[in-house]
Amino acid sequence: MNGGVDELEEEYRPTWDPQACPTCHNLRPSIRSFDPDQVVKNFCWDELLRTVEAGCKFCAVLQQGLRHFLGPEPYGSQRMKMYSIDQGPLQVHTHNTTFLEGEIEFYIHQDAPRFSPLIGVARDVSPDASKDDCMALAKAWLDNCINNHKICPSSSQQMPTRVIIVGSEGINPVLYVPEDECSSYVALSHCWGDSRIFCTKTATINQRKEGSSV
What we know:
This is Heterokaryon incompatibility domain-containing protein. It comes from Phaeosphaeria nodorum (strain SN15 / ATCC MYA-4574 / FGSC 10173). The protein is an alpha+beta fold. The chain has three domains: 82 residues, no CATH class; 28 residues, no CATH class; 59 residues, no CATH class. Helix content is 23%, strand content 12%. The strands form two sheets. Strands 1-2-3-4 form a four-stranded antiparallel beta sheet. The protein has a two-stranded antiparallel sheet with strand order 5-6. Helix 2 packs across helix 3. It is elongated and about 70 Å long.
């Protein structure tokens, strides 16, 4: 969650009050867990409201993010579980018997001041992977692999049994079946969703070799 944090940078500075907030513990690093699956704090919405009203600035940040992404109140006794691992975003999971479980990440940008050691650095995730900034990021990752990793630049790796020649604009991807070949390739993945339109089977493999529209 980055929306609104820029406006709060000057206001929300760490104040290590010896009387730590009972809800968030002032987001102190001492409550961090080295196990990403371990809950570091468990609280409900009503408790969060009480500590915000009592003046906890850290709880106010959590409240703002939860309101922004979950919509209008009330949430009442809805439970929140807070997770934090070293250098990563602060995660808050929401759940109860009637509310769809959700996960919200609180993070800051690389050049932003840190108002809590528990809220690490991350980047915004674009909803459209075809945007120029996403392409530039993917190219930077690929360049890093080629230039800085020992194995990635090698052309002597045996290719998988099936690869896709991705083509270009106006040219459909084509399935290619290597025969004991060695070359460079990259592994890509994406979220399938509920349907698997492009599953390759014995009946469709020849069609895939001719090209598939996407």
